[in-house]
Give the backbone structure.
Amino acid sequence: EEKYEYVVENDTDNEYPLATFWLAEIKQKKAKYEEAKYLYELYLSEGEVDDYFAERTAKEIKACEWALEVSKNPDKSVTIEHLGDGINSPYSEFAGLYRNDELYFSSLRYEKQNDVYNPKRLISKILKSEDQTTGEILEDPINDNEMHIAHATFSTSGDRIYYTECDYVNTSEIRCNIFYKEILADGSFGESIKLPDHINGDNYTSSQPSVGRSFRGDKDVLFFVSDRKDGQGKMDIWYTEINNEQFSNPVNLKAINTMEDDITPYYDVNASTLYFSSEGYKTLGGFDIFKSYNEENGFTAGEHLPMPVNSSYHDIYYSIDAASGKAHFSSNREGSYYLESAQEACCYDIYKATYEDVRLKLDVQTFEQKSLAELTGVKVTLKDKHTGEIIGERIELNSISHEFELDRDRDYIIVAEKAGYISEQIEFTTKGLYASEDIVKKLFLKIDDSFTKN
């Protein structure tokens, strides 16, 4: 920030026209939204701007305005905990996955043993922790002393582990391929199998795998990230359907990909929801975490997770375990470990998000539309809006009240039906409700004249 401020103040000949833009971006990532907005507007006014930066600047101006508003309403029911130095290090820890009471994660803290460079370049390995206080390297033969090994994910049946194997293509850039191993009856791993050439390629990277299910739940789907051609932007999210050893041709997830980087997919099978991080949407500063619902007609547009899960820094690799309710993600926000004070915001650490139990009680009350009289004997059905799952049904013969317990951060449909009346339905959401609350919804059913005539 200080260096770019110096350039902007002293560049009288406009030798570095993008300096104002980059300073605005830094201000934005430090949550200085008013200053960032001013600098973005100043950049647009200073001279000719190419189409890419003009479009991106317009987006970020709107993002700063939006961030000023959403930062006023953080989710107060969630507590963010930085996992200690038994898990995190001054290097980067990422791709946390909590499964069967164990945390799997990747760490970029190891040296490439036979490296020609001095100092030796760093590589990542997969670790596992049973108590989230210490991590142990996952047993060989998955990890390697020369290659990056990262991104452990499992088939929905638990009999296969997918991961990435990456190598340097120059002093710092890496290229990745996706592999899997069968998990044998004794818990050991089978041979390493590289996914076919239409998934992996020599001229692009394929990385960050996450296993989910198709909308109808009949097959596993592997989501991954790649910069292959025919994408929407830079890094895009793709998916392939799995049938034993067969993988379908990858499909670009156009519903959520943007012109910027879209990365770190995680599919929550229980909620039919894909979590991912992106710089292409309105964000609080860097990469923010979003979610998309898997519906019959495809995935919905990305929805932003509220603060404090998201911050003005980079927030990536969100995953949530339905059994425990524990969520983990990586971030380089303030409080993360670093190697040197000059690089205080350099490195990713793993954080845990704990959601408080928020009691949300729904009372659906039913009435006759014309007279507004109370109407009993109505069948009321509560459904998940995105999956169509029936959450509960109530028929009250002596009352107009139909009570349900709700989950936080979920979209619902209420359907009311009774013979002789036209069914009625409404939609509502519990998003943005961060404290216990009683919710009342009133439905008014119209008499079905055709039923009366018959």
Remarks:
- The chain has five helices and 30 strands.
